[in-house]
Amino acid sequence: MRLHIEAERPNPRKMQPAVDALKRGQVIIYPTDTGYAFGCALSSPKGIAAIRKLKGLDERSPKPLTMIVRDLAEVSRFAVMSNSQFRLIRRLLPGPYTLILKAAGDVPRSMHNRNHEVGIRMPDQTVCNLLLAELGEPLLTGSVTPYEDGVPELEEPESYEQRFSREVAVVIDVGPVWPDPSTVLRLIDDEVELLRQGKGEYTP
Fold first, then answer.
1. Model confidence over 97-116: pLDDT tens digits?
2. What pLDDT digit, counting tens, does each position of 37-54 carry?
3. Angle at 111 between CA 72 and CA 121, to 5 degrees
């Protein structure tokens, strides 16, 4: 199913099939501030396993899975950080950043990488915010475009509906999007490591 949604003024009623799919533990494709992404409810082991398969990441992978949260309180709930790291996070978020942190106890073990880390995102994007508000919990997320493969192409929701018809229940279509990857920062042991310079500006 593909839902045609206005990016800046999404109608909650029109988005309801996507929220219902998430509550059933299914995977959707939805827009973020950096392009289209797979998403599932954080509480869905089935959804987490499906996204791992779609992304080619098993639990032994050094690359952590990422969740989208609503606010800084949820960052504190799901990640371990120092006071200086929290001050940096408060300065950066919401925005096009993925922050790699030690996973706190509330993160499902099925999300951990081999180093017990987790990615945290808080996009400044209306559709994301509405999904989180209606779902009532964070979203496990993973970009549809593999940025590591070079220059990404224009993302067409219609083609995603056809390509992932068996794996994805709903595609939220806000029109074609040029993906622009997030800036990835690893915040471990009170150090800041720039893993990828992307859309978000960062200077040490």
1. 999 999 999 998 888 788 88
2. 999 999 999 999 999 999
3. 30
Give the type of residue at 108.
P
In the numeric block, which tokens belong to residue 41? 């409810």
Report the alpha-carbon distance of residue 117 to residue 103 in Å, rounded. 5
Q: Which of 106, 104, 116, 110 is nearest to 45 (CA)?
A: 110
Is there a contact between 109 and 138 (Cβ–Cβ < 8 Å)? no
How many secondary structure helices (H) and strands (E) does the chain include? 6, 11
Q: What Å distances lie between residue 132 and 13, 40, 127, 188, CA to CA?
A: 14, 11, 9, 27
pTM score: 0.92
Q: Please write down the long-range contacts of 103-107, taking CB distance under 8 Å and 24 or more positions apart.
A: 103/64, 103/78, 103/79, 104/77, 104/78, 104/79, 104/80, 106/77, 106/78, 107/67, 107/78, 107/79
Q: Map 138-175 to HEC letters.
A: CEEEEECCCHHHCCCCCECHHHHHHHCCCCCCEEEECC
Say how far residue 37 (Cα) sits from the centre of its chain.
7
State whether residue 203 is helix, strand or coil. coil
